């Protein structure tokens, strides 16, 4: 549905050239929710604005719903953009218009007849749960309700693609959850393809099917969440499902084991202990739902060094689990509260990281 190849966008700033997007490739399949995660300044917003050509890339291809947008004329591009909705971090509502008037605005621009506009606005407000607020003004409703208005407005032209620019970062956690649930429902019920950018790891965990980590204008890794979770060394996987550092015995082997899908229901660890006659100490663990699939992670300790546990680690890998031998965390580090930085911080904004 969205195909981007070798996208590059630069700006002039204070007499020097700044590369905001540096050779990015992106493929979002029809009906998929794809998240681009990164800190402020990583290039996420520029990338998103290049998808609907609010920013024209210097190089690269941008294909949406089979149409190469940079090659379209002005009129053709305007029509193509009707198939691409966009929601914003700060809502962008017109304060002088009612909720219904804000949703109707793009329909007016498209020249939709008055009767059909009224019918469509009513449908959209019902869809986002604001049928009772049609006559209210933006100043009279909450932040979450404003974002629902923004979503309804973005859907006015019946788009196939929805772009989300930090749509939940200005909302409290409870309201964020309700907006994410709404987006997932729209994705499922309307068959919407959603490309969202965020600095919040929880957003990716809650609703995305696939994700990319962006840093300095480039993707450092990307793919379906299920593949990322099973990819040894994945920063995104560790950020999506971090385990706390815990002390362990000197000379022992500590391994992080990830179970995805059906593997979460199999007694692999107990089978290892029984069949290999080895003591397995579970140091930490949890089971969550990531990208709609159950995922389990355990940090286990085996007696002896890694080379002496090669067959035990191989048994776990042959059972379909992802196994990473972890570094030892000295107990004195934990006692003073100075644990090593967690990879989950890649999903925070610059302001939050301070």
Automatic annotation (TrEMBL):
**What PROSITE patterns does this protein map onto?**
ABC_TRANSPORTER_1, ABC_TRANSPORTER_2
Domain of life assignment? Bacteria
Q: Which Pfam families match?
A: ABC_tran, NIL
Q: Which UniProt keywords apply?
A: Amino-acid transport, ATP-binding, Cell membrane, Membrane, Nucleotide-binding, Translocase, Transport
Q: What SUPFAM superfamilies does the record point to? A: ACT-like (SSF55021), P-loop containing nucleoside triphosphate hydrolases (SSF52540)
Q: Which InterPro entries match?
A: AAA+_ATPase, ABC_transporter-like_ATP-bd, ABC_transporter-like_CS, ACT-like_dom_sf, MetN_ABC, MetN_ABC_transporter-like, NIL_domain, P-loop_NTPase
Q: Which Gene3D superfamilies match?
A: 3.30.70.260, P-loop containing nucleotide triphosphate hydrolases
One GO MF annotation is:
ATP binding
Q: Where is the ABC transporter domain?
A: 2-241
Is Nucleotide-binding tagged as a keyword?
Answer: yes
State the protein's name: ATP-binding cassette domain-containing protein
């Amino acid at each position: 549905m969205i195909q981007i190849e070798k996208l590059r966008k630069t700006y002039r700033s204070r007499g020097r050239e700044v590369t905001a997007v540096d050779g990015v490739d992106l493929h979002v399949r029809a009906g998929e929710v794809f998240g681009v995660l990164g800190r402020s300044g990583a290039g996420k917003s520029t990338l998103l604005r290049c998808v609907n050509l609010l920013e024209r890339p210097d190089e690269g291809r941008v294909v949406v719903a089979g149409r190469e947008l940079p090659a379209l004329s002005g009129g053709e591009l305007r029509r193509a953009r009707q198939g691409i909705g966009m929601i914003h971090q700060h809502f962008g509502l017109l304060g002088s218009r009612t909720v219904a008037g804000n949703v109707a605005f793009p329909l007016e621009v498209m020249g939709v007849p008055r009767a059909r506009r009224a019918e469509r606005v009513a449908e959209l407000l019902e869809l986002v749960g604001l049928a009772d607020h049609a006559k209210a003004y933006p100043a009279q409703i909450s932040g979450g309700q404003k974002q629902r208005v923004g979503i309804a407005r973005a859907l006015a032209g019946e788009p196939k693609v929805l772009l989300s620019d930090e749509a939940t970062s200005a909302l409290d956690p409870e309201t964020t959850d309700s907006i994410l649930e709404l987006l997932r429902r729209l994705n499922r019920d309307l068959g919407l393809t959603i490309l969202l950018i965020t600095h919040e790891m929880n957003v990716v965990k809650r609703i995305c099917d696939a994700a990319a980590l962006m840093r300095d204008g480039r993707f450092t890794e990307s793919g379906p969440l299920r593949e990322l979770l099973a990819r040894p060394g994945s920063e995104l996987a560790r950020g999506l499902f971090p385990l706390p550092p815990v002390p362990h015995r000197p000379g022992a082997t500590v391994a992080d084991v990830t179970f995805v899908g059906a593997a979460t229901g199999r007694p692999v660890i107990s089978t290892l202990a029984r069949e290999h006659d080895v003591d397995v100490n579970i140091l930490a663990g949890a089971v969550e739902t990531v990208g709609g699939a159950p995922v389990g992670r355990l940090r286990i300790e085996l007696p002896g060094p890694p080379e002496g546990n090669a067959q035990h680690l191989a048994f776990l890998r042959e059972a379909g689990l992802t196994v990473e031998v972890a570094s030892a965390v000295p107990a004195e580090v934990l006692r003073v509260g100075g644990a090593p930085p967690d990879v989950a911080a890649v999903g925070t904004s610059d302001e939050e990281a301070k």
